[in-house]
Write a structure and sequence with these properties.
Layout lengths: L16 H12 L5 H5 L11 E5 L5 E4 L1 H16 L5 E4 L4 H13 L4 H7 L13 E5 L14 H9 L5 E3 L15 E4 L6
Antiparallel strand pairs: 1-2, 3-4, 4-6, 5-6
Helix pairs in contact: 1-4
Amino acid sequence: MAANNEQPFGRGGEQTLSDRIARLHRQLGIPSDYARVHQLDLQTEPDELAETEPDCFGRIQRLTPEALLAWQGMKAAAAEAGVKLFLVSAFRSIAYQGELLARKLAKGQTIAAILEVNAAPGYSEHHSGCAIDIGTADSPVLEEIFETTVAFAWLQQHAGDFGFRMSYPRDNCHQLTYEPWHWCYQSGNSR
């Protein structure tokens, strides 16, 4: 899926966000009842994003200003406890999510298999600018083994103090793969 010159999802234009998401879903072969079946809410892109430190791949990531402050506070508190946390990813646009799924389809994956590990465009918490994928030095990134780390144990005990919650625990109602590294900031819930 090529990048285009359309306005960002959810901001102006002739079509509504829902119309544009539906069109993208049809192009990708995503079932029309996806949101209902997976019990996921539509996620809009924020009006304002702030740049973070580089992620583990050296890319500058973006979060909402409030989520960024919460992330920085949580990361600093973890460091004080001897736990190293780093960003793997943060904001992801709806268009980028569509491109990600299109690349996987082009490699021969089925849409059903893709939707077990990636939310459909429009429904990823990464669109909100509040979701982060977290890594630590003693674990490969984006792998379930993260749950065995000191970092994960620290997050389970302290992330809520900073307004973060793990979005996709085992056997979650969204039918998404367990992601112990994926945490989302809930506005207004930090100390």
